[in-house]
């Protein structure tokens, strides 16, 4: 949106800065200082453009490293170019104070005191336009573009400089010639379009997004006598035509013009909702809902709010209406009320429960207020109800679980297809809702003989493992090092779910709930302040992905699961691992019910030899099925021999491994075959390296304090002698 009057002020100031600098070479920030010269521009180019800083630091931090040791002329020029960058932006994009913090920081690097002149400061406050993400994410590219353009302009002969500042089309061509960044991309196009308007507002439209210019030109093409194919020239002709019709200035961002070119937002996918009405302030409101064709929520202590109210409006109203309530209760109330006023949309499906009877209907209108039946029924939505109820007990287990939520409002999108179908409303279901129907049967593919042959493991054992995982949803593969636990877990997940639906996370002693499920992460805001974002962890990401394809498995592999404090990591998810269809609230998202879908499988791995951490506690152990991988049992027993045979390698490594494990005589401390499943075991040097660098250090750790001379008992020469073999 453009504030035209403020835009005129900003354009006048921008023209003053650029024209004064390019034509005279002198700075407006520091009168008498020749900052707009080829020397200053070249210095800025060397320090900033050629010295590109790829670090993740904030723009100002990097800029200080790059130019703060430069000449006064270069620093003041940088400040004036940044003034052109930030001053058009409204507070919705960048705060007024932050604008002057940026400029003040840069000017503080000058050897004498420099301040933005009052008239220029006034023009930059508060700006005229809401910038897009480019003005936040690509300031470095915009600044580099302004440097390149200045470098080009100040080196032109005076007559050509004057011509460029008088001829908007000549200026545009010059500016476009330096748009390309260091890597061949043009990330400063938004700045390019803004600068054209700032310097030539009578010719160029105040539109910073090139795609919007295309939409405007196409929408008003009927006003073009002779289209040129040049966006800016065509829009200029369109503006002249409409201004002649209107008798003055207008904005493409105002109505009735905006709705003609701006595409309508894509329709929000259909959703399903539960609204409780059996006990509204002690009264069963459902009969009135069915008779009156509406549903309602109470919140009688909270003032009337309009349909489509913003989250902040609702939060403020809840805070005023419930001043003594705890913050958690306020957050939940605000979330519930916002959903009813603004989250519900016409076309969404809705259900309510009256004992065993479930009524299903379709929302047909926006929220409205009608207190004719009392304030408890005043906040309403029009609903076309199916008057014939369906039986709650006859619904699928997933749908029954969803209806158990204690919230006044709950989302039923993932099960609403089952309810609507039973209620005879299946024709109103969209493809998006049907795709999210978690009551559908889960498709778990059978493992193939080719998969088993590739792993060199029995198909019967692998399929039994997959069946156990499918039935329990949580499994732990355990055994000594080198038995292929992580490899098997990942391959099994990919066979059942596919590579794109299989992910892996590594546990360690410092891993916590905030890492695994969700937690707050600090971020540096554009205003320099530290903020915090609630960031989902790998578990919540897997759940959210799985909810989009409820009939396909999603597998999360947790490597070294017993190395973390599981009670700390899993928190309230202990409950969900056993009761999949029940909803809970996460500690950082109290107003968003959370459940663990049936299609999320968890495979953990753990080393039985790891005595440095506690084994899984009884509560967690009950929630998993365990599958052993031991060198003396299927499917690991004989695996190395089978691999050597397939690779056409000598059998000696298998004989050595069997001899080591015979001497250890402890399945939990046995050495797994994967240490020797490498092509270099066929060579003397390769086998010696594996033995010296991998197997002997492992045995020394396992047998610490139990054997004085590991080499004498388990060294490669001793084992070869016992086997009657020699290395080639």
From TrEMBL:
The molecular function GO annotations come to: ATP binding; ATP hydrolysis activity
Q: State which Enzyme Commission number(s) the record gives.
A: 3.1.21.-
Kindly report, in one word, the top-level EC class recorded for this enzyme: hydrolase
Q: Which keywords appear in this protein's UniProt record, sorted alphabetically?
A: Hydrolase
Pfam families, sorted:
AAA_5 (PF07728)
- UniProt domain AAA+ ATPase: residue ranges: 471-634
Q: What is this protein called?
A: 5-methylcytosine-specific restriction protein B
Query: Which species does this protein come from?
Result: Nonomuraea rubra
């Amino acid at each position: 949106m453009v504030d035209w009057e403020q835009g005129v002020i900003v354009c006048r100031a921008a023209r003053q800065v650029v024209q004064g600098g390019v034509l005279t070479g002198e700075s407006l920030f520091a009168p008498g200082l020749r900052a707009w010269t080829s020397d200053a521009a070249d210095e800025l180019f060397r320090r900033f453009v050629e010295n590109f800083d790829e670090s993740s630091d904030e723009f100002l931090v990097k800029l200080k490293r790059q130019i703060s040791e430069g000449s006064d002329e270069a620093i003041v020029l940088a400040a004036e170019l940044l003034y052109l960058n930030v001053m058009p932006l409204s507070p919705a994009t960048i705060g007024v104070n932050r604008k002057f913090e940026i400029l003040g920081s840069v000017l503080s690097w000058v050897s004498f005191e420099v301040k933005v002149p009052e008239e220029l400061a006034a023009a930059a406050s508060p700006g005229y336009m809401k910038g897009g993400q480019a003005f936040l994410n690509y300031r470095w590219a915009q600044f580099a573009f302004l440097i390149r353009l200045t470098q080009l302009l100040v080196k032109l002969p005076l007559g050509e400089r004057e011509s460029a500042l008088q001829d908007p089309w000549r200026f545009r061509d010059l500016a476009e010639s330096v748009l390309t960044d260091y890597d061949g991309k043009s990330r400063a196009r938004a700045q390019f379009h803004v600068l054209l308007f700032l310097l030539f507002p009578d010719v160029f439209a105040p539109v910073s997004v090139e795609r919007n210019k295309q939409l405007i030109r196409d929408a008003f093409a009927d006003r073009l006598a002779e289209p040129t194919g040049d966006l800016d020239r065509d829009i200029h002709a369109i503006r002249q035509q409409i201004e002649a019709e209107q008798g003055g200035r207008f904005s493409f961002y105002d109505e009735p013009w905006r709705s003609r070119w701006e595409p309508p937002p894509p329709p929000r996918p259909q959703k399903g909702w539960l609204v409780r009405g059996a006990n509204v302030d002690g009264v069963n409101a459902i009969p009135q809902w069915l008779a009156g064709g509406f549903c309602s929520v109470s919140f009688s202590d909270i003032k009337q709010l309009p349909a489509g109210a913003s989250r902040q409006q609702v939060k403020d109203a809840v805070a005023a209406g419930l001043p003594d309530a705890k913050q958690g209760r306020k957050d939940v109330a605000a979330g519930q009320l916002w959903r009813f006023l603004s989250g519900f949309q016409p076309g969404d499906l809705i259900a309510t429960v009256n004992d065993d009877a479930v009524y299903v209907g379709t929302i047909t209108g926006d929220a409205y207020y009608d207190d004719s039946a009392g304030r408890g029924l005043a906040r309403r939505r029009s609903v076309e109800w199916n008057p014939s109820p369906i039986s709650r007990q006859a619904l699928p287990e997933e749908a029954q679980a969803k209806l158990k939520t204690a919230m006044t409002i709950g989302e039923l999108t993932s099960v609403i297809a089952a309810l609507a179908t039973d209620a005879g409303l299946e024709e109103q279901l969209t493809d998006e809702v049907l795709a999210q129907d978690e009551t559908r049967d889960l498709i778990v593919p059978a493992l193939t003989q080719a998969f088993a042959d590739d792993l060199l493991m029995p198909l019967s054992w692998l399929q039994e493992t997959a069946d156990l995982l499918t039935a329990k949803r949580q499994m732990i593969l355990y055994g000594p090092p080198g038995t292929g636990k992580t490899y098997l877990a990942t391959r099994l997940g990919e066979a059942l779910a596919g590579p794109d639906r299989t992910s892996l996370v590594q546990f360690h002693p410092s891993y916590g709930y905030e890492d695994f499920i969700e937690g707050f992460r600090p971020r540096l805001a554009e205003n320099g302040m530290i903020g915090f974002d609630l960031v989902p962890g790998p578990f919540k990401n897997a759940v959210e992905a799985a909810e989009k394809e409820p009939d396909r498995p999603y597998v999360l592999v947790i490597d070294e699961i017993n190395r973390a404090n599981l009670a700390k990591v899993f928190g309230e998810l202990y409950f969900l691992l056993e009761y999949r269809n029940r909803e809970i609230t996460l500690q950082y998202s109290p107003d968003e019910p959370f459940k663990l879908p049936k299609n999320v499988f968890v495979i953990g791995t753990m080393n039985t030899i790891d005595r440095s951490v506690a084994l899984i506690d009884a509560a967690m152990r009950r929630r998993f099925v365990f599958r052993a991988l031991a060198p003396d049992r299927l499917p690991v027993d004989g695996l190395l021999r089978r691999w050597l045979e397939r690779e056409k390698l000598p059998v000696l490594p298998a004989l050595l491994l069997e001899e080591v494990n015979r001497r250890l005589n402890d399945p939990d401390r046995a050495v797994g075959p994967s240490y020797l499943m490498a092509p270099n075991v066929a060579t003397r040097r390769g086998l010696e390296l594996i033995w010296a660098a991998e197997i002997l250090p492992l045995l020394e750790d396992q047998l610490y304090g139990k054997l004085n001379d590991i080499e004498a008992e388990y060294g490669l020469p001793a084992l070869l002698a016992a086997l009657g073999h020699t290395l080639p």
